[in-house]
């Protein structure tokens, strides 16, 4: 567990070590099957996998990177619709965002397991069944790592979490735990998921009211609570930016007074949360059809 957090070279060596990742996954599967999601060894295994999934898309061996990105290149080259900005038009961007990963292997080995739907479901199962904070945080953190980039892998993992594995209810429950680090990681994961435009309506329907409910009435005092508040605001920004319906949801959940209060605190210590709230307010105001409702 300590070695897996020793930097990129350490992660690379451990990912390449034959049988290591498979053994960790095998152990966790056994623990879940035996209804033992809270033992210390399971926590250690999940923390190692969490660390090995960090920067995974950037650090993947060339052979994997080529197989993942080749399909994406082929699809985008077939969709070169001329626009003001050539092939970088919004349609092509959205098309790339929805490009699936190459078909999953039914029996993944080694590094392939790190982004496979089997392990994604294991993380979601541990989030739901474990009461150990470090295990919950590491499971959420592994999913956060896997959804952090902008390539096809993060978007495919996000789609698995939200639509194929029905993971939102388990993640939503973590928004209401008392442990600040678990809550912060759950919000960070939702922020990553909410960047995927094809998932935004599902996410808004499932968790937008919960996100508003955990927004503080004023800027929080601690650093971690401040970061969590900023992340909530950016998640709400993603969900409401191009959806008047979701902006109305935020309004009906009584989120506006909270966002205004947070945005007005310009102390340096809390500027991250205040800036995020200001960005969200600016975006909400762009929905001109809601101006009269805002004013009320």
Characteristic terms for this protein:
about 300 residues; mainly alpha; 17 helices; elongated
Quick gist of this model?
The chain is mostly helical.
Describe this structure as you would to a colleague.
The structure is a single chain. By secondary structure, the protein is mainly alpha-helical. Helices cover 66% and strands 0% of the residues. The chain is built from 17 helices and no strands. α13 (223-240) runs parallel beside α16 (271-285). It is elongated and about 60 Å long. Its main location: other. Residues 79-109 are annotated as: Disordered.
The total number of structural domains is 2
Please give the alpha-carbon distance between the first and last residues: 54 Å
Question: How many helix segments?
Answer: 17
Strand content: under 5%
The count of strands amounts to: 0
Helix content: 55-70%
Order of helical and strand elements: HHHHHHHHHHHHHHHHH
